Amino acid sequence: MSRSDPGSGAEAAPSSRNLLAVAKGGGFLAAGDLFNYGSRLAAALVLARVLQADEYGLYTLSVSMAFVAGGLANLGLDSAMERYVAVLRARKDESGVQGTLQIGIGLTLLSTLTVSVVGFFLADTVALEVFDDPRLAPLLRLVAFMVPFVVSTTLFAAIVRGFKRMDYSAFAEDFIQPVVRVTLIGILAVIGLTVQVAIFIFGTSYLVATAVLVGLVHRLFPLDQPIGQAHRYTKEILTFSFPFWFSGLLNQMRINVQPLLLGVYSSMANVGIFSLVTSANLLGRVANMAVRTSLRPTLAETLDQGETEEAEHLYQATTRWTLTANLPVFIVMVLYPTAILSVFGESFEAGATALFLLAWAELANAATGTCGAVIDMSGLNLVKFLNKIFEVGLTLLLSVLLIRQWGLTGAATAVLVSSATIQVVRLVEVRIFVGLHPYNLRILKPVLAGIVALGAGFGIDRLVPADGGLVQLMFDALVVVGVYAMVLIALGLSEEDRVIIRAIARRLRIPIRRVNNEA
Predict the structure, then answer these.
(1) Domain limits at 240?
(2) 109 or 263: whose pLDDT is higher?
(3) Cα 240 to the chain's mean position, in Å?
(4) What is the pTM of this model?
């Protein structure tokens, strides 16, 4: 396939167009994720200081149960909507798109109502028999009412991504939902904030986000069309979605198993500390998740059309992007974990070692790139299914063994080992089953920039330690990011970088003559 320089012709080559689509969508999602990250940290800061570690642990455990229940009710339909809406639109099958939306919305409504009712009546049993804490029972009953909104937000966000409107997804999930949540928390923190009120705010934010997404989906594809006109690929969608449902449920268990097991084997205070550590580490995941999410529909189309070379080009470029974005965050996390957690209060500094380990886990995810998205969009459902069973089984086994012995550090160690292991497995599978590999020599540029920035950060911390407070922490972090960026620029920009910069410059009407050639 020809890959002409996009600056040399009137029309961009397919690689350029696809990379621009992924970068544009990823940019919207990354900006939204950054805003969401800041909002979550602000909410966590207020909740941690108002509720203290023990009650913050109760809140975290209740929210974790909401996500586990949501994974049970999801049925894998979000991934099915993302893939089938993208593929059927590319085939110009409008009746198929209509039928796909009907299947997704109808089955989700039925499943969420069922799970909510069951969860409401099991609240006392779970609180007393599993966690031996009667304070959880009323919180879990409240959570049962929130499950439909959590699942619906996920479903409708996947639908708009299937239409390649990443801006809509980011607007609802990463702007509307956190703004509602932070605003209500801020107001009620002054009036009087309890655990029950915090959970109610959590559910309300998802309700508002769902309402916004429904309106956006209707704008893209009217939902009030006659039912009989739809063509429903029910068997294909359910066959595709079932492995995603099971793996999604297992994924929710994997994500939330540490808080749940800390609640069983440790203390509510440790649940709260681990949740806060996880939230602080989310910054390293922002670009990674944004790029993966934006890549999925474009990759689905490319693979469906048999364009293997183009798929590999996307795979390699996006893997380099995820590593490039993660490295400066990783360096800051591993150099200054205690200083970061001290912002939330002295009692949370006990999670410094856990934050250090989780930063390494996030680096492993970023360095191995978008292999999970390739497996998802290649239709390798059995592979995904088996991967998730292995990942969750390994995480659960390590968590049970290590949390009992090491508490917070054991939970973080379990995450690191399981994350790194499954990502290596996915890399090998993509190479074997799809024939793609994620690396080329350009990956060495962010690696070298990261090594130099790590040395600079270590040196500045020896001269002016980051434990001098928030201002000093911010100064040290800016030094790390600044050195990293300067080294990257000095090494030169790749073809993909030049494509994106030219497009941004044209959009912003910035006159540029030439973009730095690749070193």
Answers:
(1) 14-439
(2) 109
(3) 22
(4) 0.69
